[in-house]
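Sequence in, structure out. Go.
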Amino acid sequence: MFARRVVLFFSAALLALAGSVHAQSQAPDALIKQVSTEVLDAVKADKSIKAGDLQKIIALVDAKVMPHVDFRRMTASAVGRYWRQATPEQQTRLQDEFKILLVRTYSGALAQVKDQSVQLKPMRGSKDDPEVVVKTEIRGQGDPVQLDYRLEKTDSGWKIYDVNVLGVWLVENYRNSFAQEIGANGIDGLIAKLAERNKNAAAAKS
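Output:
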């Protein structure tokens, strides 16, 4: 559980400092190595984040992380074939609730960051490919933890659209549970389920 909380944090915070032109021009593996290390150092130095200050975490994710994630693609992939059946309003609600779910999941990992470091594995493919997989290990306490990223090249730089945590791709994992909920209660049922889950998590945190 400790390892999962830590790597979930990395999937949120990885690109927090990647807004510069220099970062956009980097190879995807070099970008991940540089930025993840910088983020780790920043979190270790920030007592309020390590203490679980949710408002500060949300502000960090909104301002620094989400602009560098193709969150629409991530949500659409998690919802699967039902995405095209959703109205624009439902799509917006799904993105909003899914975002809150992930942010609150990440917040539980921040206080756990201690002596972890990121090690890259050799990358297959080329920085000129439109999509790549960057494989890493999180090393610190205990055994190394696998954490891989799927990135796409866009006009504004590389963007993450899926994360593999301990051998499980995040989008695929959510797709299965989302499909079950939509099959039973429709798209509005999934929205309501996510909203309820987020509400309960907020109440438990307060």
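Check: Residues 15-21 have pLDDT under 50 and may be disordered. Strands lie at 117-120, 131-139, 145-154, 157-165, 168-169.
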